[in-house]
Amino acid sequence: MKLLSASILAAALLAGCGGMSNKTASAPDTPTRTADGVLVGPNGMTLYTFTKDTAGAGTSVCNAQCATNWPPLPVAETAKPIGGYTIIIREDGKRQWAYKGWPLYYWAKDVKAGDKTGDGVGGNWKIARP
Questions:
Q1: Contact 59, 88 (CB under 8 A)
Q2: How do residues 35-58 score in pLDDT, each as one tens digit?
Q3: CB proximity list for 105: less than 8 A, separation 6 or greater
Q4: Can you tell me whether residue 121 is helix, strand or coil?
Q5: 3-state class of 14 per DSSP?
Q6: H or E segment at 102?
Q7: Given Cys at both, which of 15, 47, 50, 73 links 128, Cβ 3.0 to 4.6 Å?
Q8: Which residues make Cβ contacts (< 8 Å) with residue 92, sequence separation at least 6?
Q9: Would you say the pTM of this structure is higher than 0.85?
Q10: CA nearest 103: which of 59, 68, 66?
């Protein structure tokens, strides 16, 4: 009976949360946000694009060791494209977010939110901007 009453209490508390209309608290409107004029992932880390990718191709050319150094921005299983955000399928079959057709990546050497040490690496990596 305690479990049932706890469930009822939880449902009542959730029902009382105004402004949630058909959205869960963990479902963002976009897979990124903007901070200091750059796109950042849900973890607050800077996102990058790779000039060797082709915008709108629906794939990434950054695989294997490249993807270890430049981890792709992953897509939740239930996520759907929204606005300028699309979902590409990687060589390994995993899904990755793209913005305006450009796949999005983190840089393994950025250690804290606000780091932008990947900009210009190898002449092929650029900070993703809105």
A1: yes
A2: 999 999 999 999 999 999 999 999
A3: 47, 48, 49, 50, 62, 70, 71, 72, 73, 125
A4: helix
A5: helix
A6: strand 102-103
A7: 47
A8: 63, 67
A9: no
A10: 59
Measured distance CA(99)–CA(123) in Å, rounded:
20
Contact 110, 45 (CB under 8 A): yes
d(CA 81, CA 6): 36
If phi over 0 gives left and psi between -120 and 50 gives alpha, with beta otherwise, what is residue 66?
alpha
Q: Are 11 and 101 in contact (CB under 8 A)?
A: no
CA dihedral for 111, 74, 99, 81, sign (positive or negative): negative
| pLDDT of amino acid 54 | 97
In this structure, the chain runs to a length of 130
Report the C-alpha gap between 43 and 45 in whole angstroms: 6
Residue 67 to residue 73: CA distance in whole angstroms: 10
pLDDT at 62 over 70: yes
- CA nearest neighbour of 38 among 104, 129, 99: 129
